[in-house]
């Protein structure tokens, strides 16, 4: 087979990322070589490929679902917000500068479209199928002229478009109809149909609405995916923690020892790669929660200061909220603190920043003997090393260059007492190291916590990706989806003008059977 599909959504967070991953895993299990693709991603959660390119973590996760190595081809444009109005532009895995939203949409789109179409063409020549993910909504009509990620790329590739809607939010039928009706006739020609996501209840009760939607739009619904708890899969910027379930203040799996271990993550501004704590939350008996008040650190056994795209801004925020003083008290009392990337930088003595914030010299929290200078060139690396006697793998994404002046060496950072700091993201995904680290934390916190000896983060991630594949295989019309991917856009799809009159109500449906439900979907 040879073809592709664009998974669009009625809104942000409709489920495009997980649906794309689910389709990739389903196709892979069928023996189809498949690659994910997102022309333009806006996210603070990113990943470093083996060739040293920075891409969105969602695309790296989708590549894992497809069982292929992630590459810059899969996410040629990445926008990393630095404020409400500007972002760092990462092109083909390398930063090319800061740009305002108006500047970005003001004239670079033609060249960017050529780049992203070239990447897509290269993937199409290598794989049997390419499953593209859109961004936001394809009906953002104010941005259609410069769109390179939704209908722009679909039209360039002549890919059919599957629109995903989150029924858990409500208004999914209006969203499907309105999304289609707001598109031009040329774009509507590519909208093949719809996929309902996060449904709770009896699908037969939904069928009259699906029939009416088809009458209104001339387009079918390709499946109804049930609401699924515990999908701790990397998305763009959703605050979702744990592979075992959405964990903030509840333990999903019981502890192995007598105590649980409580981890508080400081929810700093422009927080990036907070997926680092997923591996902690995957451990039985570890409770992970995000906090923004000093009193929430009191009962924490470990405090994590995560990465951030605004290190100086995060430092100011910690001081304003009293968290800086609370961290200093913890360090003095010998209670564990872990700083990762930007969180490591704020724990140092001072920061010299003429790149990110242009604030010049700023005093850090002084908890680690480290001085940080921001370089214009970004460090992108996939280091391998050793800590606590165990092999560790990670990845680095930072402008700050740390000069370590003392303490005990720790993953290219340092440790003083129970304060730890490193630029390495992803280190806690190394199972043996994570267990040793949590043992150290439990000892320092006085907890009778024992890490589970057999928890494998990689195995848990594979289980979650298989679950996504199962959702597609069991709840979507896979024959029809395969036809879309292989044969392209169905012919004869009608144009729906805005304000189109309502179709007559359908006749009452007969009692549903499993066969009828599958056929209706």
UniProtKB/TrEMBL annotation:
Pathways involved: Cofactor biosynthesis; adenosylcobalamin biosynthesis
Listed InterPro entries: Class_I_gatase-like, CobQ/CobB/MinD/ParA_Nub-bd_dom, CobQ_GATase1, CobQ_N, CobQ_synth, GATase_3, P-loop_NTPase
Function: Catalyzes amidations at positions B, D, E, and G on adenosylcobyrinic A,C-diamide. NH(2) groups are provided by glutamine, and one molecule of ATP is hydrogenolyzed for each amidation.
Pfam family, one: GATase_3
Catalytic residues, chain numbering: 341 (nucleophile), 425
Protein name according to UniProt: Cobyric acid synthase
Region of interest (Disordered), residue spans: 496-521
UniProt record, GO biological process: cobalamin biosynthetic process
Organism: Streptomyces kanamyceticus
UniProt entry keywords in alphabetical sequence: Cobalamin biosynthesis, Glutamine amidotransferase
Coiled coil: none
Residue ranges occupied by any CobB/CobQ-like glutamine amidotransferase domain in the UniProt entry: 262-432
Family membership: Belongs to the CobB/CobQ family. CobQ subfamily.
CDD domains: CobQ_N, GATase1_CobQ
Keyword Ion transport found: no
């Amino acid at each position: 087979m040879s073809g592709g599909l664009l998974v669009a959504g009625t809104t942000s967070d409709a489920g495009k990322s997980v649906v794309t991953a689910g389709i990739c895993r389903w196709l892979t299990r069928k023996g189809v070589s498949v690659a994910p693709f997102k022309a333009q991603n806006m996210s603070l959660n990113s990943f470093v490929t083996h060739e040293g390119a920075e891409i969105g973590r969602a695309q790296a996760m989708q590549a894992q679902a497809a069982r292929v190595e992630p590459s810059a081809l899969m996410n040629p444009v990445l926008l990393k917000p630095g404020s409400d109005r500007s972002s760092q532009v990462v092109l083909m895995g390398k930063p090319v500068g800061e740009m305002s939203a108006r500047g970005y949409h003001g004239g670079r789109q033609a060249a960017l479209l050529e780049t992203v179409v070239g990447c897509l063409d290269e993937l199409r020549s290598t794989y049997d199928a390419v499953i593209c993910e859109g961004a936001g909504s394809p009906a953002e009509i104010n941005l259609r002229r410069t769109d390179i990620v939704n209908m722009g790329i679909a039209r360039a590739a002549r890919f059919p478009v599957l629109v995903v809607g989150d029924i858990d939010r409500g208004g999914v039928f209006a969203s499907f109809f309105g999304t289609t009706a707001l598109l031009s006739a040329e774009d509507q020609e590519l909208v093949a149909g719809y996929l309902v996501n996060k449904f709770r209840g009896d699908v037969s009760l939904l069928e009259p609405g699906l029939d009416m939607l088809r009458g209104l739009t001339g387009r079918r619904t390709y499946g109804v995916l049930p609401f699924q708890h515990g999908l701790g899969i990397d998305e763009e910027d959703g605050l979702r923690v744990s592979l075992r379930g959405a964990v903030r203040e509840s333990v999903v799996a019981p502890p192995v020892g007598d105590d649980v271990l409580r981890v508080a993550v400081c929810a700093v501004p422009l927080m990036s790669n907070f997926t680092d704590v997923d591996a902690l939350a995957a451990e039985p008996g570890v409770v992970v929660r995000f906090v923004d008040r000093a009193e929430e650190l009191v009962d924490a056994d470990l405090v994590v200061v995560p990465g951030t795209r605004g290190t100086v801004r995060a430092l100011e925020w910690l001081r304003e909220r009293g968290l800086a003083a609370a961290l200093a008290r913890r360090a003095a009392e010998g209670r564990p603190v872990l700083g990762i990337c930007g969180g490591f930088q704020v724990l140092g003595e001072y920061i010299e920043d003429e790149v990110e914030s242009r604030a010049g010299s700023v005093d850090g929290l002084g908890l680690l003997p480290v001085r940080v200078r921001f370089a214009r060139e970004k460090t992108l690396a996939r280091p391998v090393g050793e800590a606590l006697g165990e092999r560790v793998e990670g990845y680095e994404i930072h402008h700050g260059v740390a000069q370590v002046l003392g303490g005990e060496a720790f993953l290219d950072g340092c440790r003083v007492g129970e304060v730890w700091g490193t630029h390495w993201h992803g280190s806690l995904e190394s199972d043996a190291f994570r267990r040793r680290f949590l043992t150290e934390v439990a000892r320092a916190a006085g907890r009778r916590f024992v890490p589970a000896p057999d928890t494998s983060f990689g195995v848990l991630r594979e289980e979650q990706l298989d679950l996504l594949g199962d959702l597609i295989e069991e709840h979507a019309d896979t024959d029809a989806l395969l036809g879309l991917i292989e044969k392209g856009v169905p012919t004869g799809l009608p144009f729906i003008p805005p304000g189109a009159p309502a179709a007559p109500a359908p006749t009452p449906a007969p009692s549903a059977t499993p066969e009828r439900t599958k056929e209706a979907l």
